[in-house]
Design goal:
With 223 residues, the chain is α/β, with parallel strands linked by helices. It has six helices and 14 strands. The two termini are 16 Å apart.
Length: 223
């Protein structure tokens, strides 16, 4: 296993050498994304790159305050897919993006439904990334793609590991371009992620995986 050094001196684990991701041809049509500091800009760029009618349901957690706001509208301005902030149990549809509302966790349930729960804080935050990732792994297994973007801390790491154990795919934003690289670096440190991509690459990558296509692997930039 190759290792490199992050800026703080701690080792990170680079992905195992791979020539391709999703060589099995599985339709990875449940996508879960976590972000924190710098996430608004990253998510806006990513959503703008998703093609209309992408055959996947997308669940998103962005660390945010408990106050109501217009985050869904902000993130949806350039998106060809509708960005919805569920208010309760909601039927999950392909070609839609579901954003965790303030002060509530977003969870995937059986029967193609989503739930909003005001459970305990995790990593001192609610919504948190790990509950979404775990629920997706438990419900949809190998159909899941988990993605960690810019942010601070370790939220999302144990969720990525759960997705990997369920035979889903795990991806991270390239830390070299992340506004706050801690979350993707921790993904590299603790999880054997399948690939590391820039934001401008992730849109086409997610669309291809949702359609069951194989994509070339890309390794992390050594730091």
């Amino acid at each position: 296993m190759p290792w490199s050094k992050a800026d703080n001196g701690f080792p990170i684990r680079l992905p195992r050498p791979r020539t391709a991701i999703n060589s099995e041809g599985i339709k990875r049509d449940v996508v879960v994304i976590g972000a924190s500091a710098g996430g608004v800009m990253a998510l806006r760029e990513l959503f703008a790159a998703f093609p209309a009618g992408m055959p996947a349901a997308v669940g998103v957690v962005l660390h945010r305050s408990a106050a109501p706001g217009e985050l869904a509208q902000v993130l949806g301005r350039r998106s060809a897919l509708p960005v919805i902030e569920p208010a309760g149990r909601t039927a999950m549809k392909q070609g839609h993006i579901y954003l965790a509302p303030p002060d509530h966790h977003l969870l995937f349930e059986t029967g193609r439904r989503l739930a909003i729960r005001r459970g305990p804080r995790e990593h001192s935050t609610r919504p948190a990334v790990d509950p979404l990732f775990r629920s997706a792994a438990e419900t949809y297994g190998r159909r899941v793609v988990g993605i960690l973007l810019t942010g601070c801390g370790e939220d999302g790491v144990s969720g990525l590991i759960a997705i990997a154990k369920a035979s889903g795919l795990t991806l991270a934003q390239d830390p070299e371009e992340a506004y706050m690289p801690s979350m993707p670096l921790n993904a590299l440190r603790y999880d054997d992620v399948n690939g590391v991509f820039r934001i401008d690459e992730l849109g086409p990558v997610v669309a291809a995986l949702a359609a069951g296509r194989e994509i070339p692997a890309r390794r992390a930039t050594r730091r």
